[in-house]
Amino acid sequence: MESIFAFLKYLKEDGIWVLLIITVGIFSFSICIERLYSILYRFNINGKELMTKLKKNILANKLHNAIAICDRKPTASLARIFKAALINADKPSSNIQKAVDDISLEEVQGLMKRTSYLPGFANVSTLLGLLGTINGLINSFQSLGSANPEDRQTLLAAGISMAMQATFYGLIVAIPTLLLYSVIQNKTTGLIDDIDR
Questions:
Q1: SS3 60
Q2: Is the pLDDT of residue 113 over 80?
Q3: What is the pLDDT, as a whole number, of residue 11?
Q4: Rounded to 5 degrees, what angle do the CA atoms 35, 37, 40 make?
Q5: What are the distances in angstroms from CA 48 to CA 51, 67, 197?
């Protein structure tokens, strides 16, 4: 409970930097949650299983069944790409290739959407933390000039402690953001590799 009161006191006295870091963190974690959901559930599908089912129906000349299989997961990237090829199966190969290329480009853009913001948010939160620390140290040393000699050590320790909190909160946002960015980037690359194959 004391730590909550200390945090609220910090926000009141010199917390503009932490409020900015929290704002950046909200944007950052919102993007991470949305991207993870999209990549793991919305765009993802078991490619080998899909290919096996489609191959079976295509070899049996049941294109409508193959298209229906793709329609079962209409948001999955591979299903949409296969569907584009199947719908154009009776056309020349150049038309099929163009349809597949167009939908593949659209899917890759959808997979990578907003991911590039995450390293920027991590850097901004770290820099805001540093800026808050520097601002806190400046304010701390300025207040020492007008303080009683016996209070200076206490004021300095409190000021430095308050200043360092900004760096602490900046890193609390930056580190998980970069870790989640690595996971998202890795999963996205895997899906794009599946699309290329």
A1: coil
A2: yes
A3: 61
A4: 100
A5: 5, 16, 11
**Among candidate residues 29, 160, 156, 39, the one with its CA nearest the CA of residue 107:** 39
**CB-side neighbour CA atoms (13 Å) of 119:** 5
Q: Which two tokens stand for residue 67?
A: 């298209």
The tokens describing 171, both together, are 């890193």
Is residue 159 within 8 A of residue 145, CB to CB? The reply is no
The whole-number pLDDT of residue 176 equals: 95
DSSP state of 149: T
Q: Which residues contact 67 (CB under 8 A, 6 or more apart)?
A: 83, 86, 87
CA atoms within a 13 Å half-sphere pointing along the CA-CB vector of 84: 22
pTM metric for this prediction: 0.78
Q: Please give the Cα distance from 80 to 73 (Å, whole number).
A: 8
